[in-house]
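Dear colleague,

Thank you for sharing your sequence with our group. We've completed the structure prediction you requested, and as agreed, I am returning the results in plain text so they can be pasted directly into your records. Please verify that the sequence below matches your submission; if there's any discrepancy, let me know and we will rerun it promptly.
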Amino acid sequence: MVCSDFDWMVCMDYDIGPILRKWKHKSGEVTVRHITGSDGRSKIQMRLDLGLLQMEEDGRPDGCRPHGCESLLKYHLGRLDRYKTVNGVEIGFELSKKQCEGLREESVMYYYRYLSLFIMGQHQQVVRDTKHNLAVFDLCRKFAARKVDRFALEQYRPYVLMMNTRAQAQLELDRGNLSDALETCQRGIEIITDFFQQMSRPKLADSCSELAILRALHKNIKGKLPVNPTEVLHADLAEAIEREQYEKAAELRDKLRHLQSPDSQPYQN
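Please find the predicted structure tokens below.
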């Protein structure tokens, strides 16, 4: 809408320039913050080169309730449940072109929010929002009436899976569960690798940046795990025997027996 001269003073009230000038921002960087809205609720703001985005922290990021539901995803899942109740099966349920477009637009909102949340270290909410988008992908892939809509979002699946895995792994690290964090990373790597197999594009895994990120995280976490002394001694024993260092091998066997004894105490040289 173009404002007339009569409306100019009113339009000036909507100028966000003073807000942007007070918020330092470098082009190419993602800068986010929490604010308290005029309704007293916590909001998330993301600074962009040309302005900012403001999102609700919970519910749908734009604060809307499509068809009275928390999100379009919830609405269409409800439709699916009602369809199965009436028909006994899900065969025949479809999402139109317009419905798929609406779901894609909604998933973009969730993308901006989970990216902001990840930067702020709110990993539980990142898991929540990435799960939302993965559910949108699944719904469209299974029920879109048009083939183009079934696969339109699949190109983003590795990225969302990677962000979901990183957030879940960080939650485990925050709890001090290194082994669980390691397993989470490994599971994420396997899921993304399987995705490329399912899409008949297994070679894409070799150049997948999302897999590279998760492998680096896996390596980092593995490096923090305490070394199992029994495994180390077994490896040293095998090496001593291979090199025919029998005195050393005998000493290593004694250490192993001591460690494996039910009432063992820390071994002293």
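Summary note from our side: The radius of gyration is 27 Å.

Kind regards,
the structure core
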